[in-house]
Structure formats: structure tokens, C-alpha cells
Amino acid sequence: MHQVPGGMTTNLVAQLREMNALNRLDEVYQELPRVRKELGYPPLVTPTSQIVG
């Protein structure tokens, strides 16, 4: 797993569960490095973590 803050992971899992898409968690983790690169490697703290995740 990439360096993802615990709160971001908790929120992500909850959102995927609500959408009945928890099985896609690995896809999201694989996509995070690309998204962070495209955004200029922002720090994953609130509110940025809410936008990225």
C-alpha cells in the first residue's frame, strides 16, 4: 500500500462500501500515485486528501 493516511483510508473504504464497490479498493490504490503525480504531489492532509481520495 502506498503512503495513505489512516483517515483517508477509513473514508475511502466507507465510501466504496456505500457504493457496493469495496472490491475495487486495489484499483484505487493503484491509481493514487498517478493522480498525485498529475496534481503535483500534494500533501495528503485535509482538505487535499479529501480531494485526491
TrEMBL record:
<protein>
    <recommendedName>
        <fullName>Carboxylase conserved domain-containing protein</fullName>
    </recommendedName>
</protein>
<dbReference type="Pfam" id="PF02436">
    <property type="entry name" value="PYC_OADA"/>
</dbReference>
<feature type="domain" description="Carboxylase conserved">
    <location>
        <begin position="2"/>
        <end position="53"/>
    </location>
</feature>
<dbReference type="InterPro" id="IPR003379">
    <property type="entry name" value="Carboxylase_cons_dom"/>
</dbReference>
